[in-house]
Specification:
Helix content is 27%, strand content 37%. It is built from 4 helices and 7 strands; from the N terminus they run H-E-E-E-H-E-E-H-H-E-E.
């Protein structure tokens, strides 16, 4: 499987599920996971985008440890993709606008928690590697730079 095939699979999953799980590490090395609403943006291949408040804990975690993992899955769990990469915290109104245009309709729970779109940053994950799973078929393919033992 190629990187482009992984991106195509992520797009298919996001069109169905609109959510994924993001895992980060805090300053003490403890893992933290949370549901997010990510997107792939046309013309910005090889990255996953999401928005958050700069006041949320994940931003502090990512400033200290920018390496993170995402898990994407179809609603019936027949396809799962885990991607690993480095997250950049981007404070750019143009990119924020682009991400919000793509994600806005799918972020109902975020707006209940956060509420103010004027105070947001973009999380840009540059994908280093991925693992593609088809659990019911026993398929597992590693794409890109993935550390042994994962």
């Amino acid at each position: 499987m190629t990187k482009q095939e992984i991106l195509n699979t992520l797009e298919m999953i996001l069109n169905e599920a609109h959510t994924a799980v993001l895992a980060t590490t805090d300053q003490e090395g403890r893992p933290h996971i949370r549901w997010m609403t990510p997107a792939l943006l046309r013309g910005r291949s090889g990255a996953v985008y999401a928005v958050t408040s700069p006041r949320f804990g994940k931003v502090v975690q990512l400033e200290a440890h920018p390496e993170a993992e995402w898990m994407f899955q179809t609603p019936i769990l027949d396809t799962i993709v885990t991607v690993r990469g480095r997250i950049n915290i981007v404070d750019n109104p143009s990119i924020l606008s682009e991400v919000l245009e793509t994600l806005g309709p799918f972020m109902r729970s975020f707006w209940k928690l956060k509420g103010d779109e004027r105070d947001l940053v973009v999380l840009e994950t540059i994908i280093d590697g991925a693992i593609y799973y088809k659990p019911m078929k026993g398929v597992k393919e590693v794409v890109g730079d993935w550390r042994k033992g994962s």
